[in-house]
From TrEMBL:
Residues 91-141 form the DUF2059 domain. This is Uncharacterized protein DUF2059. It comes from Varunaivibrio sulfuroxidans. Keywords: Signal. It comes from the Bacteria. Residues 1-20 form the signal peptide. The keyword Signal applies.
Amino acid sequence: MKKIVFLALILACYPTLSFSQSFFENDAKNQNNTKNQDDAKSRLAAANRYADTMDFNKMMANMTAQMATKMPENKRASFVREMSSLDWSWMRKLMVTSMVQVFSTKELNTLADFYGSPTGREITRKLPAYMASFLSVAERQITQEMAASKNR
């Protein structure tokens, strides 16, 4: 008897359970569509979300330090001081505007998801060292190649 009552309850609730499942599936689809919607407003929101994963002050400090290594030693400190005193908020706005023009909402959300993750943050932390290593060798190689091409 208990089995029959249990089966009757399941059968009576099936349409509700079925509706609930389809409702949540449709809700999830709608949320994905909103996240992947590709219009100016959604691109701007996604670009800002991606930009929020970046530490602009730290990024500019790293860039300034890298640029300073290319300057005469007696000018480095004043260059770093001057660059550090600048307001870089315009750069964030410029980057966001450019991202909205170039990338889709889906691409911007993917960037934000990745660079906001622990792995993405770790890669971002290591990029300046990678770039410094790569560029110092590449610069020398390019200089050698250019000199060699003049001698040909």
